[in-house]
Amino acid sequence: MKPQTIGRALGVGLRVAGRVAGERMAAAGQGSATSRADAGAAVTRTAGRTAGKVARGVGGFLRPFGRVGGILWLEVTGVFFFLFALVFATAMYRLRPPSWHGPYDRTFLASVALLAVFTYLGTSSFLRARRK
Question: How many domains does the chain have?
Answer without folding.
Answer: 1
